[in-house]
Amino acid sequence: MKQAIYNIGVEDTMRIIGGKWKPIILCHLKHGIMRTGELRRAIPNITQKMLTQQLRELEDDGIINRKVYSQIPPKVEYSLTDYGESLNKILEDLCVWGEKDIERRKQKGENIILLNKEDVSADPLPYAD
Amino acid sequence: MKQAIYNIGVEDTMRIIGGKWKPIILCHLKHGIMRTGELRRAIPNITQKMLTQQLRELEDDGIINRKVYSQIPPKVEYSLTDYGESLNKILEDLCVWGEKDIERRKQKGENIILLNKEDVSADPLPYAD
DNA sequence: TACAGTAGGTACTAAAAAGTACCTGTAAAA
DNA sequence: TTTTACAGGTACTTTTTAGTACCTACTGTA
After folding, report:
1. Average per-residue pLDDT in chain A?
2. What Gene Ontology terms describe what this protein does at the molecular function level (chains A, B) (predicted)?
3. Which ranges constitute the DSSP H helices of chain A?
4. Which domains, from first to last, does chain A contain?
């Protein structure tokens, strides 16, 4: 049995939600159930390999559920577990802070683009203009 | 001028506070001003090189202040900028979630150790027994 | 005099993370 | 009949991140 030693709690949190793809995957899943292909399309640039790999790790850590339908072609749904939902507020805060930071940097003249704002993508307000 | 493109805000946040050492450094600095040596002692295992490197990046991103006293031997103090303070709640949440997660895993029989709990280390309650 | 403490820097190496390319197998659509 | 979509897997390579070792320069202490 291998032992894990942490100095402070944030190390464990980052082990679980850190990395290039996990926070992105989780920020999508906090809106609800998604199929593999939906996730792949929602996260441009992620490869099938990285997507599967990260999903497996999140599953192993008890953060997400993997529901496999025994049918052909295959259908697999991913969603946050109840425990994973306890990360929702943190994930939301991380998204919002980043959106504001990007806005701030833009104002400073940095050439930086944000494709999907959290709330905009969730609620496009089609008639607002 | 190089361009940065993000799909969702959390990518930018993680660019700034992610990695092995940055969240740890920030979780220490949110308690107040610290000198280089204090940080090095507070974060066992970090090397001088990584500490300096991460501090420079955080400084470049406007998260921390670096105050150099022109004296010998040198004295340098690090602290969160006002902007950096806007991360305090997130950092606190990340620490607390991790502490609870470690507790949860311990209960499940995992061999896992947390050396410094956020509140305990900040307020040792010397007469409480 | 030799060493510890102060706060770094730099070149090189090791390890971890991510990416590329190519594979499975079935069903439905072009 | 070939292609696409579905949800993967695996071997290998590249990139990124982190670590090691050794350097500066000055002061105070043993």
Report:
1. 91
2. DNA binding
3. 9-17, 22-29, 36-42, 48-60, 82-85, 88-107, 118-122
4. 9-84 (1.10.10.10)
